[in-house]
Design goal:
Blueprint lengths: L11 H11 L9 H11 L1 E6 L2 E6 L2 E6 L8 H13 L2 H10 L5
Antiparallel strand pairs: 1-2, 2-3
Helix pairs in contact: 1-2, 1-4
Length: 103
């Protein structure tokens, strides 16, 4: 799929993070800062209390807690998949994953 079909506001780092979130089996090394950057590009992510972030994507709101280490936890991946799927980003993750692959 041509590059120009992808949303302009998602840079390569955002796309890589999106693909990592939808990857199967679930990735265990998705950087929290990269996730926050992606969420700010596709919606809003604001820190509401020390380590708690209110995230709004596609009309859905959820509170995420910053992980103790740099990578997000598996349950956070599951929650992000649900939110991003509802907002239509699962299809984009598939497009990015399949770029350059022969059909």
């Amino acid at each position: 799929m041509p590059e120009n079909n992808l949303p302009i506001h998602l840079n390569n780092h955002h796309r890589d993070t999106l693909v990592s979130i939808f990857q199967h089996p679930t990735s265990h090394n998705i950087d929290w800062k990269a996730v926050v950057s992606l969420l700010e590009a596709v919606g809003t992510a604001e820190e509401i209390h020390e380590g708690s972030f209110r995230v709004l994507v596609g009309g859905e709101e959820q509170i995420f807690t910053r992980p103790r280490h740099k990578d997000i936890e598996v349950q956070q991946v599951v929650d992000l998949r649900r939110m991003l799927t509802a907002a239509g980003y699962a299809a984009l993750a598939d497009e990015v994953t399949n770029e350059g692959k022969e059909v």
